Amino acid sequence: MARRTRAALTAALICTLLAGCGDGGEAGTPAPAATGEPWYDEITAAEAAGEAGGAGTPCPLPVTFPVPKSWKPKPVEAPDDETATEVFEALARRGGTTATCEVDGRRAGGGFLRVWIVDAPAAEPRAALEAFVAGTEDTVSDQQFREVKAGGVDAVEATWVETSKLLEEDDRSWALALRAGDRTLVLAIGEGLLAERTDVLPAYRLAVSGLRPNA
Asked: Burial level of 13, CB count in 10 A (0-12/13-18/19+)?
């Protein structure tokens, strides 16, 4: 094989492995960029069958994103009674964020996609995401971060393994942080007892790829 041909093939191979050459997408966008553990970019987005976040949806947000069939958005609202409030505080607050919207995918065999609003309005996405990942009483390991695009918006994405102290089970999660208007948002999804990555990641990929800020 001629030296020039070998060089061309080598360059093409490197380009493919890095997934960032030519017209494969905007810089920072998985195209896919990392197959297998821990990002699983080869798992593609589900087909859209609705939206969450818009003014006419159950939980208005600074952004709108598509959701798959049978995934139902609903607001996360603080309860009135004291006992339920304690449960709410434990489940709906994490690392300086408050859960605002939950997209329930249990009927489709998936889990939950949750949108969290960062309490500090001026928080930068990377710092907010680091605090979110760390903001649990469970054990966190294998944290990884990368810059991506959510729709056309610059964002930071994280993945990590969370080990439940109660169940002693390892579950991988993924989350994305971005600025929308004057707030920072975190979109998060994870594996669980009844949901594996192939159940939850298609909905997450759909939301991330189709996300757009509201005017």
From this structure: exposed
Per-residue pLDDT of 101-150, as tens digits, reads 999 999 888 899 999 999 999 999 999 999 999 999 999 999 999 999 99
Q: Where are the alpha helices (DSSP H) in 19-124?
A: 82-92
Contacts of 148 (CB under 8 A, 6+ apart): 28, 29, 30, 155, 156, 157, 176, 208
Q: Which residue has the tokens 């998060």?
A: 188
CB 41 within 8 A of CB 30: yes
Burial class (CB in 10 A: 0-12, 13-18, 19+), 153: middle
Cβ distance 113 to 103 under 8 Å? yes
- Other residues' Cβ atoms within 10 Å of the Cβ of residue 6: 10
DSSP assignment letter at 53: S
The pLDDT confidence band at residue 9, using thresholds 50, 70 and 90, is very low
The token pair at 57 is 């949806």
The Cα 156–Cα 74 span in angstroms is: 25
